Amino acid sequence: MLQFKEIAKSDKTRARAGEFHLVHGVIKTPVFMPVGTLASVKSISPEELIECGAQIILGNTYHLNLRPGCDVIEKFSGLHGFMNWKKPILTDSGGFQIFSLAKLAKITEEGAAFQSHIDGSRHLLSPERAVDIQACLDSDIMMCLDQCIQYPADWQEAGDALELTTRWAKRCRDHWEETTKRKNALFGIVQGGMHKDLRSLSAHALADLDFPGYAVGGLSVGEPKDIMYEMARHTLPLLPDNKPKYIMGVGTPEDLVELVALGADMFDCVLPSRNARNGQLITSCGNVNISNARLRHDTDPIDPQCTCYTCRNYSAAYLSHLYRTKELLAYRLNTIHNIHYFISLMTTIRSAVVKGEFEGFRKKFYAERAGGR
After folding, report:
1. DSSP per-residue codes, 86-106
2. Which active-site residues does the annotation give?
3. What is the distance between the alpha carbons of residues 172 and 304, in angstroms, rounded to a whole number?
């Protein structure tokens, strides 16, 4: 059931198209996954996500374990029933949230002990517990618990975190096999900071554990763009080509195009929904600030090339009015557009790879994005 198959590949880059069979459906890659941290992509419904073309969404172990808790979600037989989403779900393990949100977090061999950022209650997230929570959520793709580090991190700090992450990955894998019988996919997460030799060690160690898929973590954490691409260029070829490769927490439309060219299959990022709430719409001709005065009288859609619900029905002037007056509808319509743009971009990339036209698409994409609206 948990099977990845490469369908087509670019002859000039590492870009490829594939299919990943999961419990709740088949994902066609490359794929962008909207982030629904608390069982909701902010401001839009699951039905609107489906209309946008979403194949899979994200939830988060750290947040959903604290609120509403597994005692609630178990009553719905998992996250799918709880939020009325019938397609695949990926859940992050919570390692990044412990690093970025939790109070008084302490990392030991046993796991991550922390206080909730909500009420100060104490918790221990071990590798085994991370798997158990995700099994309760019944996510199609579960992530191993990893230790996240700040940027920049020196070689020793990155190496120590990498070694702990590898030991935790082995524990996650053992517990996953023992308790879930491999029902859901489990991904290992490559760490190693911005050090190529450590990235190599991590990738080889995780490949030996033979996970159903692999993620590259610790990118887009404040490093310069060229270093992010350099780390991805180095790491992605080290991972098994018969498994999906996931770049976590990335990124802009340009990032997606470049990282697909480097061999990545899966992406997630809060950028489209967060930027929508901040009034930035992402279009085929570049990014547009919806509160810009020149849009007040614009009777055209914000992106005339777009086929989303927002662009089919509303003008740039109306979107500008909604946002300026802080009407709640602004967040919904803006988010629908941005999510649709990202998903449509991935569909176009996949089509270009299948047709053997990826390099032509890439040049046209950059020319259009630089042209401006």
Report:
1. -S-EEEE-SHHHHHHT-EEEE
2. 92, 268
3. 47
pLDDT above 90 for 372: no
pLDDT band per the 50, 70, 90 thresholds, residue 373: low
Residue pLDDT, tens place only, 167-209: 999 999 999 999 998 999 999 999 999 999 999 999 999 999 9
Residues in contact with 11: Cβ distance below 8 Å, sequence separation at least 6, in sequence order = 356
Cα distances (Å, whole numbers) of residue 102 to 127, 151, 171, 174: 17, 18, 23, 27
Can you give the pLDDT at residue 370? 86
CB 1 within 8 A of CB 22: yes
Architecture of domain 29-269: Alpha-Beta Barrel (3.20)
Q: What is the DSSP letter of 238?
A: G
Is the bond leading into 244 cis (omega within 30 degrees of zero)? no
- Give the CB-side neighbour count of residue 200, counting CA atoms within 13 A: 4
Integer Cα distance of 344 and 134 in angstroms: 29
Q: Which residue from 220, 285, 278 is spatially nearest to 246, judged by alpha carbons?
A: 220
d(C-alpha 153, C-alpha 223), whole Å: 11
Q: Domain limits of the chain?
A: 29-269, 277-371
- 282: part of which helix (H) or strand (E)? strand 280-283
Please tell me the predicted confidence (pLDDT) of residue 133: 97
Mean pLDDT of 117-130: 94
DSSP 22-71: ETTEEEEESEEE-B-TTSS-TTS-HHHHHHHT---EEEEHHHHHHTT-HH
Go through 105-120 and write b for each residue having 16 or more CB atoms within 10 A of its CB, e for each that does not.
Answer: bebeeebbbbebbeee
Residue keyed to tokens 């270093």: 227
